[in-house]
Amino acid sequence: MDKDLQDLEKKSIAIIREAKAQFKNPAILWSTGKDSTATIWLCKKAFFGDIPFPVIHIDTGRKFPTMYAFRDKIAAEWGFNLLIAKNESALNQGMAPEKGRLDCCTELKTEALKDLLQERKFDALFLAIRRDEHAIRAKERYYSPRDKDFSWNYADQPAELWNLYVKPSEDFSHMRVHPILHWTERDVWQYHQQENLPINPLYYAKDGMRYRSLGCMPCTVPIPSTASTVDDIIQELETSKTPERAGRTQDKEKAYMMQKLRALGYM
Amino acid sequence: MLMIILALDALDLKQVERFNCHHLLQTEYGETSLTGFKQERTVVLWASFLTGKNLEASIPVETQWTYRVHSEKTFLPYFTTHKTIDVPAFSFNQKAHVEERRLLKGVFDEAVTIEAYDAVVWRNHEKNKEAFLKAIGHFDLVMGYFNLADAIGHLSFGINDKLAVVYEELDRIAEAVKDSNDLLFIISDHGMKAIGRYGDHSRNGFYSFNQGMGLHHPKITSFHMLLRRLVENEYATN
Q: What's the rounded Cα separation, in Å, for the pair A140 and A124?
């Protein structure tokens, strides 16, 4: 095993085991993308094959059919407890990006997850976010407390000195735990290659285009690419100057600002 | 009486302190209260500042940019002569601000670059600055409105270097009009907080005076009466 990947894996597995020991009722989010699939694999390795907590997939009803197929196939093969978080009532009322991307994300993702969290009383959620994805994610810690409204106070986060990750207090609704926060996009792909992990086919180029980041169909666009293997993708990343999430039509901050500026009458 | 009001949209106390804008931070300074206002709408807040009344309910969002208050309902007639530069709800330069808002929307629609938008905002700012500085000394009251911190801040509040340039510029304006004989009153409608790289209105407005007024967390509507009293005292003692 590559020494750098071994170090990354070692730290991630330590965080996963630490969090499992500290929290009574954790769960992990899985989008079926490369990062969360790698994180699920890390969980399998951390607990010698069986993931001792549920895997949550947030179903917005607007994901790519390939993502649903991939989800069901991997869940069956890896044998974990898959929970689906879905806001049926918002979908029945026709919630869609045309009604406002931020509202759509809030209803179909955040509210769906909130409901499941409330129902199952999860006290920790593993998420496969990475610092190099987005400027705001660079401010994240491995342990990130959230209140009942999912608010994150980045100015007041627990210190994480000497690789010690501890619950700061009970003053939070649930804890977000980020085991691969220190990985880069390239690390994730190299890890996929090394561990021979299953890969959602949307990542591979078809007709000169491929998806670099997966989200809902209406809000995700492919990038020009000819990468049809993991090797190609890694090679592409070596020279790419495009941000990873460039294929997402809106980031949340931009969507929030548009909505707010409209409310204030600017647009 | 010579009074200068520097009306700075979205000037935020935390940033004034952070960038060490000591000309903006005068003898007395602090945050204003927006209690009673549901939103931090620019036109509503300046109209309420001018009249001393919360006008939120009577200014619809859809038509707010063309809303005008009558001069006699403001504190302006308390001054023998007055000049306002680009003040929202009073002497707002419609053409310039319509263009800014069009470009702002264009940035979100990815039809306009942020650099092109910034250039227009700065161009309008320079025009207002010229008119403002030219008016100083010729009227009892000169009120100049500058939206630089708001307009640049909405797209770039989280970008430290850009924000620093904006605050330095506003501090230089305060320095340019500073005169111990004139009352310099600096006021903002609301503050600003970061949403990633963007800036959202916060509920903490800013005020400062070059004389002690003894205010504590004043409402934005309470300055109307204060200005009236200041003028009455001035004329009574002359």
A: 15
Measured between alpha carbons, how far is A186 from A4 in angstroms, rounded to an integer? Answer: 12
User: What is residue A216's DSSP assignment?
Assistant: B
How far apart CA B90 and CA B99 sit, in angstroms, is 18
Closest residue to B108, CB basis, from A135, A254, A265? A254
Cβ A253–B154 below 8 Å, yes or no? no
B102 in A contact zone (CB under 8 Å): no
User: Chain A: nearest CA to B57, how far in angstroms?
Assistant: 14
Cα dist from A253 to A140, B9, B146, whole Å: 16, 22, 26
- State residue B82 phi and psi, 5-degree precision: -150, 155
Assess: ipTM above 0.90. no
* CB-nearest partner of B198 from A253, A265, A266: A253
Distance from CA of A193 to the nearest CA of B (A): 33
> Is residue A219 a contact partner of residue A250, using CB atoms and an 8 Å limit?
yes
pLDDT tens profile B149-204: 999 999 999 999 999 999 999 999 999 998 767 899 999 999 999 888 899 999 99
Contact assignment for B154 to A257 by CB distance below 8 Å: yes
Question: Rounded to an integer, what distance in angstroms lies between the CA atom of residue B130 and that of residue B139?
Answer: 16
The percent of chain A in helix, strand and coil, each rounded to the nearest 5, is 50, 10, 40
Q: Would you call B65 and A254 a contact, using CB atoms and an 8 Å cutoff?
A: no
Helix (H) or strand (E) holding B145: strand B141-146
For the whole prediction, is pTM greater than 0.90? no
